[in-house]
Specification:
Blueprint: H1 2-35, H2 39-52, H3 55-67, H4 75-87, H5 91-101
Helix pairs in contact: 1-2, 2-3, 3-4, 4-5
């Protein structure tokens, strides 16, 4: 019985580590695409990371929605993603929310990693 438990434990650990590695690589490639102004590719890579809960990806997705970079412009979705990132302490998202509160058009550009 304990052998089965060990196998299950090792299997779970393996898949957990593989998943973390995939998310890290996807995030890195998405941020690279973002910095290279390939916003469509960045959006495709970063959206799952934003859904997964990464605040930098959430801010980047919000930024792209706000300005229509790589995706159609949607201020409501932009605010949604920026608020989620700000709630997790992402500093650029917090600054962006302040800018949105006073209805300024621009806010910090480059998300941090």
């Amino acid at each position: 019985m304990s052998g089965v438990r060990i196998i299950i434990f090792v299997t779970c650990c393996f898949f957990g580590l593989t998943s973390c590695s995939f998310h890290n690589i996807n995030m890195q490639k998405g941020m690279y695409d973002y910095k290279m102004n390939d916003y469509r590719s960045a959006f495709i890579r970063l959206k799952p990371e934003a859904i997964y809960g990464n605040p930098d990806a959430q801010y980047a997705i919000g930024y792209m929605y706000y300005y229509g970079k790589g995706v159609y412009e949607d201020r409501d979705r932009a605010r949604y993603w920026i608020q989620r990132a700000a709630a997790k302490g992402q500093p650029l998202a917090i600054a962006a929310l302040s800018a949105l509160a006073v209805e300024k058009k621009s806010f910090p550009v480059v998300p941090t990693m």
